[in-house]
Amino acid sequence: xxxxxxxxLLLLASxxxxxxxxALGHGCALDVIDGTLTAIGDDYKATFRAGELxxxxxxxxxxxxNLPLALEVTHCSRGEPVAVGPAALSHDGLVATFGRxxxxxxxxxxxxxxxxxxxxxxxxxxxxxxxxxxxxxxELRPQAIRSAGSLRFLHGSVGGVEIGAVLGLEADGKxxxxxxxxxxxxxxxxxxASFVQQARLPLxxxxxxxxxxxxxxxxxxxxxxxxxxxxxxxxxxVVWQRAVSATDRDVRAQRVSSNGTLLGSLIMLETSSQDxxxxxxxxxPISGRWLVAWEQLGDIKGRILSSTGGPLSSLDFAxxxxxxxxxxxxxxxxxxxxxxxxxxxxxxxxxxxxxxVNLSTLSSSFPxxxxxxxxxxxxxxxxxxSRDNRLDRALVVWRTTNLLxxxxxxxxxxTPNGTPLSPVVPIAGGGGIDASFPTCAxxxxxxxxxxxxxxxxxxxxxxCAAVHHDFVFQGLGPLTxxxxxxxxxxxxxxxxxxxxxxxxxxxVALSSPGTTGNDVSTLSVDPLLCSDCEGSLxxxxxxxxxxxxxxxxxxxxxxxxxxxxxxxxxxxxGGQGDVALRLLRADDGVRSLLEINCTPGLPFAPCARxxxxxxxVLLRGAEANELTLVIHSTALLNFNCQPCIIGPDPAVGVxxxxxxxxxxxxxxxxxxxxxxxxxxGTTVHSQFVxxxxxxxxxxxxxxxxxxxxx
Length: 710
Description:
Elements: H1 2-7, E1 17-24, E2 29-33, E3 36-41, E4 44-49, E5 52-57, E6 69-77, E7 82-83, E8 88-92, E9 95-99, E10 104-110, E11 113-120, E12 130-138, E13 141-142, E14 146-147, E15 151-155, E16 159-163, E17 167-169, E18 175-177, E19 179-182, E20 186-191, H2 193-198, E21 203-205, E22 208-213, E23 221-229, E24 235-245, E25 248-257, E26 262-270, E27 276-284, E28 289-296, E29 299-305, E30 311-318, E31 324-332, E32 339-346, E33 351-358, E34 369-373, E35 378-385, E36 388-389, E37 394-402, E38 407-414, E39 425-428, E40 434-442, E41 446-455, E42 459-469, E43 479-481, E44 485-487, E45 496-501, E46 506-513, E47 518-525, E48 532-540, E49 544-552, E50 564-572, E51 579-585, E52 591-594, E53 602-604, E54 616-620, E55 627-633, E56 636-641, E57 644-648, E58 653-660, E59 667-670, E60 683-695, E61 699-708
Parallel strand pairs: 31-36
Antiparallel strand pairs: 1-51, 2-3, 3-4, 4-5, 5-6, 6-7, 6-12, 8-9, 9-10, 10-11, 11-21, 11-22, 12-20, 13-15, 14-19, 15-16, 16-22, 17-18, 17-21, 19-20, 23-24, 24-25, 25-26, 27-28, 28-29, 29-30, 31-32, 32-33, 33-34, 35-37, 37-38, 38-39, 40-41, 41-42, 42-43, 42-44, 45-46, 46-47, 47-48, 49-50, ...
């Protein structure tokens, strides 16, 4: 095709552009979770019930278990201790209140702790010091018996809780320093009689409870994930785990607008003392809702959230004696239905299972389906599922391990209810190369899978491959796996990958060793061939980053907007984990559809950069098994050929005969692009023409597309 190479050409190279980094995970919240009034801050969680405040410091994985400090007011007096009456709990905004006949205990939730205030509308009888006595329940031990300032309760070298200095405040604004007394079972908050006697009411006794971190691993965040809801919501939901101790990781979330503004407060998804693992999130644009799933004590749990982050329903994907692990969610359009899917590993049964959830009706009553079963010689594990689906099909990929410890990947396309639409096919591994920890994205026809690879000869790295599903309506459609494309991060080997599908390219985000720690970068690849679009693009090369995830707001590689997304990861700075989000755009140049069709069919062209020899143009959703040609031109003719219009001008372009469309009405036209700057900025118009219509007695045209090469 010499004339073709001289001519063109089409669409742009995917050129991601990154916005500023946004720090997540800071702030506080107060809400009723699973029937209990619960609060969270940067480095603590707390519950309020039966008159007792239980304050649990987040001491990280260095703490052997949760080490809460519980306080319950039992007495108040100005002489002999007098027992207080029962407490009535209420809350408003970020303030919880235990109302008692003798005093109100006001607990203000803050980012750095809980401000505990004892408010007296009238004073107890007597004329001595004012004493509020609290029963203490904790493994933490006090550092001192008496303190004129703050008092610390610690556990060895991992840290604990600090009760701040006592301050008295009367109605005229006068203040007085108080003191703290502790006998191991009680803490007394004391104000001197001289101040109390002259104070105008109401009188407030005002300490602060906060976390004391002795180790450097207080904020141990991990496993971030992100999913978008398009307009009118225009927001991402970021989820992650925050370590409380070695036996407890909570699940938190935060909404972020499409322009990077934090929306609302932190969201509490799981705050019990039970450990969690492998949190995942998916979005359903049709229902306008998010679905979050995680592993908890061998079960798969989840919640459906509204577009404002409010919990709508709790889910149990898989309960029982079997050990369930590694849940991963898929959302997207799913043929304009409010459906999401969850896949996970049943370690006891040696199976990969899946379940459908209808987010529109909040229904999770669908049965579980078995995706794959292992044998006595083969173990299955680590499932993943494509995330940017537009059709009622998704690609599920999992790892197999044989008795020799050799690992490979296999995959199958499923309907949302678990019905196979393709045979199970090998994806990667074999020939002395191990493949593990897959991630994938796709739109129902084209998918990209990325994974970690290991070889005694080639070392450790990663790879990706394009997977194409040609759906046959009368049976299983073939699943074609492209040639794996190996890659490494800027520093060499790769620790983790994540994959998302954009309009004109796929993006693989990766964490890899760098000069000062672990770096995060992205790789733009052609979703049809997994060939290089733009090389490696840095996200964060300055920190020590782990656990990367990526999402796209585009619903697959279609000619629609927007074409942006987000990368989330955990930067480790000074030993402390946090969650960071970075917005990105993957614009494919100036592109517009030409409304010149008289038959269904949508062409698009991914990753069109100068010198891309693997470039091609794809036709989707046309008639099945129909002879087709394609026209590429730098000029428009717009020839009226009733009832169709032929847009590109063949006189200053090329015509190529392609053969027949697939049973699904798809066809790919290979179009190697010439290199050099001369072709950059060229606008090319393309249109597929099918045999069998009224135009010129035997033709009809599809939709066309205009693209500018960058």
